[in-house]
Structures are given as structure tokens and as C-alpha cells.
Amino acid sequence: MVNQALIQKKVAAGYAKAALRLGAMVSQYRPASLTEPLAAAIATPMADFSNNPAFAFRSPPLWDKPVTWALVDTTDVLAGDIFVAPIGTYFVARVEPYRPPVCMLTNRTVTLSGDAGAGSTIGAGATCSMAGYDNAEYGPSPVFGGTALASGWPAFITLKNKGQVPETGIPGDLRAGEFEMFLPVMPDFVPAVAMTAVTDLGTPYRLTAVEPSPYGTRCQMEVVQI
Asked: How far apart are CA 161 and CA 177, in angstroms?
């Protein structure tokens, strides 16, 4: 009797054959550490990535549309895995039977900082998700110099809008841009509001909203203006 597992095995083998002909060798990581997500590759499969699940390969992903589909042997691919390919770094957002994995093309690496223990999903080490908030006269602001909680994580960051006018009342003050960031699933950790995210370019952001899911975390944030 044919069952889902048997069909999935044949589909995975088909993806592997296609990737062998069309793809390039990539490094596959399954992060176990918050501070070294790319410590050691678990595999080096052949793979390619397309912005179309039919793998038409007619165009690359657009600037603000990082969703792609992976042409790769899916026998051992999980949400949260990271693929480092010659054409870019991707994280796996969703894996379902018979279908290619949904991946996000990343454009930055980030370090998340906050109070020690913030964001932990392990009961004994967990702290309030509002840790790091400073309820000043003009609203919350990040507490700088916090502990680095997660570092070296690939992320996709994009500008959403120009943000709100600062409340300082000083003429010439610039709007703080509002950005959106997508992160992969992290081991025993969920980013929290008011954490600070600093990119590999040194740009600091303050997280203003967080939407965790089984596919990763979507964050709203603003540039920290000093």
C-alpha cells in the first residue's frame, strides 16, 4: 500500500536528481547554539533556489520579496536550517510533504542584545519579555550595553516606511525609519520587544513588535538614533 512516507521519499529523490543537474554545492547548518549558528555544517548537498515553486528560473528574487523555494533533497531538511550557497544565504521557513521547502533569502547578519536571560523559552532562565524597556518621558528606549544573546544570525531586513516624527520638538529632527526583519527559528529563544539588533554593518535597531511562529520570527523595528 502506498503511503505518504513512501511518496515523500520518491519526491525527495526526484528533487535530489534535479538539484544534481541544476544546482551547486551548498553548506547546510542546523543551529544548536545562539552564538554560533554556523558552527559546523551537517551536510553539503547540491541545491538551487527559485522565486517560483515550479522552478521556472526566469528571474532572481526581487529586492523586497525574499521568499524562495529550495530545489534540494528534502530527506533531512527542517524549519530553521540554514543554507549557505554561492548565490546567497537562506533559512528554511517551512517544510511540507511533496512540496519544496520555503526559504527566505537573507541580506544581513545580526546580533541581538538585551538583559541576560531575555528571550529564553526555558522556564528557569526566562525573563520578562519587556526586559530592557526604559519608560522615559518620550516613550520606551533601548538600554545599551546589554548582553549579547544571539549573534551571527542571518536575517532579511527591509525598510517599511519613514516612521513617526520624533517627539522632541527640535526643528530638523529626522524620522526614525521603520524596518521589518525576518529571522529563522532559534533554539530555545524568541526575540523580544525592546531588544537591540545590530547588523554586520554596525547599524543598531530597536525591536518594537515581535511575531513568533513555527516558521521563524517577524520583527518590526526602528533605527536607533543617537
From this structure: 6
Per-residue pLDDT, 54: 93
Mean pLDDT along residues 192-204: 96
In order of 10, 107, 137, 169, 210, the CA distances from 197 in angstroms are 42, 14, 23, 27, 13
- Cβ 81 vs Cβ 94: under 8 Å: no
> Hey, where are the domains in the chain?
4-105, 108-223
Establish how many alpha carbons lie within 13 A of residue 223's alpha carbon, considering only the half-sphere containing its beta carbon.
Answer: 19
Percent of the chain scored above 70 by pLDDT?
A: 81
CB atoms near residue 47 (< 10 Å): 26
Q: Report whether 6 contacts 12 (CB < 8 A).
A: no
Domain 108-223 carries which CATH code? 2.40.10
Question: pTM above the 0.90 mark?
Answer: no
Q: Residue 49 corresponds to which cell in the numbers above?
A: 533556489
